[in-house]
């Protein structure tokens, strides 16, 4: 029997090293949550283990309401987290998947009555889910990937995607997790593109690269995620500048995705943008390297048009995927019916749901050679927990190119206690190292991050929840 025994939630407020502009939001200062949950796995309380999960609480992504104050949205984010933990306390199930499934459905029912969007409601559920998976892996003394391959989690794909009834993730997931992931570096709206764009007023006070061209040289990156805002002249001018920078600094080639962040009202508006861009000779090389287009349309209209990806002359754009429209498993199937070719994965949207979506993609590709795919995206993941768990999940799902931006918008782990930084560097030297000022920072070499070692840990992290709680200055976990 699985049940939740104890909980501990810790919030800190941290600041970015430079503003992160995405969609209608500019991130400069926001909370980060650390959740520690103790689960019982058996008939006795002695058969228990702590698990952990963490994430930033970013306003204006889960609920893009310009009339809602950021403080009010952060309060909602905390409320859905607290509700998920409260609901989880009353559950009793036999498998981790059944625990998540009951919690997921109960949380959605509560959210519907409160008129809370499913994407926001599931954010709370995902904290409990990640902590549960971490705790179960620790209790079993088995990495999460092995628990999946050995069918120990009780995963049922059919309730999420009916055409997968009778199949297991073992039948459809990659045979082994990836040993490394290519970093797709975010280019936010406010990022200086060249060193010459940096003024004394916006110069950051640390040694990490600030401009795009400096980041390319420092990290060896050649994949990018470029934000577009739906204002044609601005978007085109920015793409021209980017085309020049990529040509100068990525002589071995480059690739990029375009992220609309719901800034286009409908497909004809985005189609007009793409056709205008395609008509410019200076943008041909860049457009030919676009891997896919992420959520260009407002979630309110995203699943209303059956012609997604089609252009006026009968040709097609690069594949278009959903991100913010991922309200539930049925949303992905509806999106595929509209012409979308894939979906993003972020741990904050759910690990089990991500596994089911990846299995549906593989099933349809095997059956019909449809060319569907999953991308790895980022909610601005930071260490010490969220980044490592997300990398573990992304490599398990086979997402070889994953957006990463925490290394760019935050100065490593500088805003956490020194004990936390020591803990992460000690247990994950392949990912974090101390800089000259003793700040622990993510190490990206040749544009990639090693992930093989994460699958030797329970769920991405080699240190114990009890160790992290102590490093954060919390009272001991019992």
What report would you give on this structure?
It is a single chain. This protein is α/β, with parallel strands linked by helices and 478 residues long. Helix content is 37%, strand content 20%. The protein has helices at residues 70-89, 96-114, 118-140, 144-149, 169-172, 212-219, 232-249, 267-278, 284-287, 329-338, 351-368, 386-397, 406-409, 418-427, 465-471, and strands spanning 2-22, 25-41, 48-56, 180-187, 223-227, 255-259, 290-294, 320-322, 342-345, 373-376, 401-404, 432-434, 440-442, 448-450. Helix 11 links the parallel strand 9 and strand 10.
Quick one: overall form?
globular
The total strand number stands at 14
- How far apart are the first and last residues' alpha carbons, in Å? 20 Å
Strand content: 15-25%
Determine the structural class based on helices, strands and strand pairing.
alpha/beta
The major pleated sheet works out as: 9 strands, mixed
Write down the Rg. Answer: 22 Å
Mean pLDDT: 95
Give the helix proportion (percent range).
25-40%
Strand/helix succession: EEEHHHHHEHEHEHHEEHEHEHEHHEEEH
Oligomer: single chain
Number of helices: 15
Keywords:
single chain; 478 residues; 9-stranded mixed sheet; 3-stranded antiparallel sheet; 14 strands; 37% helix; 20% strand
Short description, anyone?
This protein has helices spanning 70-89, 96-114, 118-140, 144-149, 169-172, 212-219, 232-249, 267-278, 284-287, 329-338, 351-368, 386-397, 406-409, 418-427, 465-471, and strands spanning 2-22, 25-41, 48-56, 180-187, 223-227, 255-259, 290-294, 320-322, 342-345, 373-376, 401-404, 432-434, 440-442, 448-450. With 478 residues, it is α/β, with parallel strands linked by helices.
